[in-house]
Amino acid sequence: MTTVSSSIPVLAEASSTRGGQRLTLIRPLGGMQSLDLPGLWHYRDLLWSLTARDIKVRYKQTLLGAAWAVLQPVLTMIVLSAVLGPLLGQAADHPGVAYPIFLYTGLLPWSFFAAAVGNAAGSFISNAGMIQKVYFPRLILPLATLGTALVDFAIAGTVLGGMMVWYHTPLSMAWLLVPLPLAVMVLAAAGVGIWVATLSVTYRDVRYVVPFALQLGLFLTPVILPSQRLPGILRGLVWVNPMSGPVETLRAIALGTPLPLAELAASAAVALLCLMGGLVWYGRSVRRFADVV
Amino acid sequence: MSDVVIQAEGLSKLYRLGAAGPGGMLREAVYDAAGRAWARLRRRPVASVPVREVWALKDVSFSIKSGEVVGFIGRNGAGKSTLLKILSRITCPTRGQAWIRGRVGSLLEVGTGFHPELTGRENIFLNGTLLGMSRRDIAGRFDAIVDFADIGPFLDTPVKRYSSGMYVRLAFAVAAHLEPEILIVDEVLAVGDAAFQKKCLGKMKDVANQGRTVLFVSHNLGAVSSLTQRCAYLHAGRLLTLGPTGEVVNRYYGDAADADGQTLHPLEYYRRDHEDDPTLRVTGLAVNGLPARVPEVAMLSDFHVEITLEVYRPVHDASLTLILKNEYDQKVAILFSWDQGYRFSAAPGTHQVRLHVRGLPLAPGAYYADIGICQSTASVPFDVLTDVPLIKLINQHQVPLWQERPWGAVHWNEVSWSRAA
After folding, report:
1. With contacts defined as CB-CB under 8 Å, which chain B residues touch A4?
2. How many helices (H) and strands (E) does chain B have?
3. B338 DSSP 8-state letter
4. Shortest CA gap B89–chain A (Å)
């Protein structure tokens, strides 16, 4: 009895290593400790396993296998270009740029975001069995969907290289900055993904809302049209949309136009806020997951 | 003091059931909040939805020293699994706290996270990392795992093509090579054939002999006795005792024998949870007009059961259920009041419901009842009693044959034998 009360105040963290032995404290409430960030690092191989699982399982017993990762965005690009290209003519305020390449530079990051967030929404629910039977940092589940989407993104990205050769788009030094929009893109997908994943545990509605919202998002993000061409009210949304910065910046890098760094910074700030809020909400909800999911 | 590795202090776990349970739809949450705001606006008292609360675990404290092998026994629903889930950090306690010193490996289910489309090899890595091993650890123990599982040629076959035996062997093999400092195992030996169970028990003995701490839940008292030195006995969410396995198992057997001898405890003993329901509760039970006794009744004869209900809030169209179980815990008859079109409605007060059972063709023996009352067939019950000794059916020459003959669950007398012409 007395051992507990006398030894607990010494502990700072939920899981800390003292004298080479892990000490785990189990208590009703957990603020930051339920985030279990040290655990996230300990279980990093699980992140890899789950990502690999999702990729392998998706293409088992399919004829074309990983080619689907390329076919989906490419076919979308072809259809949209065929329909919208004649309407928009010279890719919208980018003189000398063919519409397909303009479109593909937008579709590429957007498809990543849509896949990551769309799959994150179901990530806790579809893995309920694991959540109820094993402890691991649950955050790994939505993060794994991010990993899966990132692999598809990389595969589909190779097509962009081919397109740049085809359309004789020159390579510029701006490519050195490409990690910046990619980082914001991943941050945005993580932020929104953790929100929808956590909300969907309690409110199953989220699983129906997310595909719908992503469909709308395609039009509210400068994927098909440049932000300047969006109607007035919607143009303001560009500044609070965490994906508009990455999309426009990636496009500017590929097409060699001036980089919209202010937009990227705004997106980064929104994505970061979203991620922090998502983590706080997740930390508050996670201890009920096994009972609710 | 220094070699205590698990210290639990007043661990309690409350589950909420019913209308206001967690989960559910966004719409409900919005309606709920709106309704509450409206009520507050009009300065009306906020109506609260009745919530059923169940303490799955109540004030459980104990300490376990390094290298101890401790068994956890108790009836279904005693709180064993909830306790292990809390110690495994799967769920949080509602109250109380515990600390654990050392790396914990918990095995509450064999094959958690196995994906049917993946091969044995892929699942070893997936399941291993899920249990907290690094890919390097798994690679190092890979051959030992495959050896133990004995699945050699099927290593690169999707596990959906495995026989159930192979599947279980592989799953246990991964978990068995986890090598944690503290191993928590819940009833996983119930799967697999006898030879495999023996192998698993052997492996667990090895783990114990290596000086690791093992917490072990099982219904197999033989396994508990042979594996553990100390044993915890849980009943209705409370820890009744934690002591030398022999003594505790004997006490458990004693309690079980009590039930076999059909000693009747106060009704409270059989209540599924110990919370007061705001609507009603069962306060009395009498068979053939004999309260608080387990009457002997001739088999195949009629009997009646009177259920006394204390109603606190008006009830409309509630249904009653009586599940009759034999000594082997088989449900031999389930009597729903709605089958006969009976619905229970009552104003607050004491009421009695009588049910008359005619000619139930059951074999002689002791019978137990689960009794439940709920609003409709699908909702959370107002009150549930489980495993109440109800009646003892005896053969008073209804069947003119020796007493110790074999019986089935049902004794069907409407049979005629004759020589076919």
Report:
1. 7, 9, 97, 99
2. 8, 19
3. G
4. 6
pLDDT of B21 > 50? The answer is: no
Q: Please name the residue that has the structure tokens 């099982």.
A: B218
Which of B9, B23, B133 comes nearest A202 by C-beta?
B23
Q: How many domains does chain A have?
A: 1
Distance of CA B232 to the CA centre of its chain: 16
- pLDDT tens-digit map of A28-40: 866 566 778 888 8
Closest to B390 in 3D by CA, of B371, B409, B368: B368
- The pair phi, psi for residue B245, each rounded to 5°, is -55, -45
Q: Are A251 and A93 in contact (CB under 8 A)?
A: no
Q: What is the pLDDT of residue A116?
A: 95
CATH code of the domain made up of B55-260: 3.40.50.300
Q: How far apart are CA A292 and CA B21, in angstroms?
A: 9
Q: Which one, of B86, B99, B262, B368, lies nearest residue A21 by Cα?
A: B99
| pLDDT on residue B193 | 66
Nearest in space to B322 (alpha carbons), one of B335, B332, B309, B333 = B335
Measured between beta carbons, which residues in chain B are less than 8 angstroms from residue A8?
A: 97, 99
- Does some domain include residue A117? yes
Distance CA A245, CA A221 (A): 9
Task: Select the residue of A4, A50, A130 nearest B112 (Cβ to Cβ).
Answer: A130
Q: Would you place residue B45 in the very low, low, confident or very high pLDDT band (cuts 50, 70, 90)?
A: low
Least confident of A169-178, B38-47, B127-136, B286-295: B38-47
B62 at A interface, C-beta within 8 A: no
The SS3 assignment for B374 reads: strand
The architecture in CATH of the region B267-394 reads Distorted Sandwich (2.70)
Which residue range is the domain that position A248 belongs to?
31-292
Residue from B388, B152, B124 nearest B270 by CA: B388
| Interface touch B122/A46, C-beta < 8 Å | no
Is A135 within 8 Å of B106 (Cβ atoms)? yes
Predicted confidence at residue B33, as pLDDT, reads 64
Tell me what percent of the residues of chain B surpass a pLDDT of 70: 83
Q: What is the enclosing helix (H) or strand (E) of A158?
A: helix A140-166
* DSSP E strands, B18-146: 52-65, 69-73, 95-101, 104-107
CA distance A15 to A26: 9
Low pLDDT (below 70) residues in chain A? 1-21, 29-33, 89-96
Give start-end residues of each CATH 2.70.50.60 domain in chain B: 267-394
Nearest CB to A134: which of B86, B112, B117? B112
ipTM: 0.83
